[in-house]
Amino acid sequence: MQTWLMYALLTVLSWGVYGVILHAARSKMPMGAETPNASLKAFLFVCIAYALIGIVTALVLKARGTNWSFTGDTGSGIPLSLIAGMAGALGALTLVLALGAAATPIIKGGGGFGVAAAAAVMPIVFGGAPLVNTVTAMLLHRPEKSLPPQFIIGCVLAIVGTVLVAKYAPSNNPGTAAHAPASPAEAPKPH
Q1: What pLDDT, on a 0 to 100 scale, did the predictor assign at position 172?
Q2: Which residues are registered as beta bridge partners of 72?
Q3: How are beta strands 75-76 and 71-72 bridged, if at all?
Q4: Which single residue of 50, 98, 106, 121 has CA 20 to 30 Å from 75?
């Protein structure tokens, strides 16, 4: 297996479980009056984890004998790296906020997905992000030829697939514990 593909698949694995684990962590934070803060409390520890990974990265650079220069032939890589980091961190922040809002009952203005919030949110994030990435890359590096129809079809299929996975994930189906309880009129009568 090629090295880039191995790393790409490891990214798929780690980001694939990220939302589910993050939502589980959020749901274990204090609730009640603290429910609005649960997502931010989970995000705080995501930030700490980022810092720990940063320290490990510095140790790897040191072990590889880096010269600690961050300026190449076209300028310094620091500003764009910081902007990329801010985009990633902002995405992680808005993700925990989306998970919290999706878990909130509909009667309180949320999505009503409860424990299945990650099954509703993550397909939208991971289906939409590649499309934004591709369009952004095309704007920065304009294609020399017109877009092939297969690309357009692929984009449409990605959008349709994202909507279908988010809407019809088995854990999102009515009747599961993830949804708000039935109204008193719909509740089964005791025997």
Answers
A1: 66
A2: 75
A3: antiparallel
A4: 50
The pair phi, psi for residue 109, each rounded to 5°, is 90, 10
Quick count: other Cβ atoms within 10 Å of Cβ 113?
A: 26
Between CA 99 and CA 119 the distance in angstroms is: 10
pTM: predicted TM-score of the whole model, two decimal places: 0.77
Query: What does the buried/exposed string (b/e) look like for 128-139 if buried means 16 or more CB atoms within 10 Å of the residue's CB?
Result: eeeeeeeeeeee
The predicted-structure confidence for 23-44, as pLDDT tens digits, reads as follows 999 999 999 899 889 999 999 9
Residues contacting residue 37 through CB under 8 Å, at least 6 positions apart: 29, 30
Q: Which residues contact 19 (CB under 8 A, 6 or more apart)?
A: 95, 99, 118, 121, 122, 125
For every residue of 156-183, DSSP letters joined together read: HHHHHHHHHHHHH-GGGSTTSTTSPPPP
Q: In whole angstroms, what is the distance from residue 189 CA to residue 173 CA?
A: 23
Rounded alpha-carbon distances, angstroms, from residue 126 to 21, 66, 91:
15, 34, 12
Question: Which residue has 């299945």 as its token pair?
Answer: 116
Segment 15-26 mean pLDDT: 90
pLDDT tens, residue by residue, 85-109 = 999 999 999 999 999 999 888 888 8
